[in-house]
Amino acid sequence: MGYEYVCNARLSTGESRELATALERLGYIQLANMDPRRIRLRLGDAAPREGWDEDFEVIVEDAVTVVAHGGTGTDRARLLHAVASFLAGRGYDSEFAEE
Q1: 68 contacts: CB under 8 Å, gap ≥ 6
Q2: Are 71 and 43 in contact (CB under 8 A)?
Q3: Which of 66, 67, 69, 70 is deepest in the core (most CB within 10 A)?
Q4: For residues 76 and 68, is the Cβ–Cβ distance under 8 A?
Q5: In b/e form, how buried is each residue of 21-33, taking b as 16+ CB within 10 angstroms?
Q6: Prediction pTM value
Q7: In sequence order, which ranges of the chain are alpha helices (DSSP H)?
Q8: 69 vs 19: which has the higher pLDDT
């Protein structure tokens, strides 16, 4: 699976799309694929890995879960900070716990 981080926030479908757009605007992240509740992201400078379309996945259901399939500890920290900042900016709890 990968590293999993969970935050107790419930986003609407529209907010989920806004989050995907905000993450892509960071410049080092590319949107690999998205459906209303799953945002799949790739590191912009990383070579694709066989069998994995994404390096990170943000799952938006009863909570926001960030799953890291690739990247370094620094990459994970940057992404978590970006997601937490997005959530805090909209008044949500932005504390992530590692699962």
Answers
A1: 2, 3, 4, 5, 55, 56, 75, 76, 79
A2: yes
A3: 66
A4: yes
A5: eebbeeebbbebe
A6: 0.90
A7: 13-24, 73-89
A8: 19
pLDDT of residue 70: 84
Strand order in the sheet with 56-60: 29-35, 38-43, 56-60, 64-68, 3-7, 96-98
Q: What is the pLDDT of residue 2?
A: 85
Number of Cβ within 10 Å of residue 69's Cβ equals 17
Helices (H), ranges, 45-90: 73-89
Q: What is the pLDDT of residues 40-98, one digit of tens each?
A: 999 886 666 666 668 899 999 999 999 998 888 999 999 999 999 999 999 998 999 99
27 within 8 A of 33, measured Cβ to Cβ = no
pLDDT at 84: 97
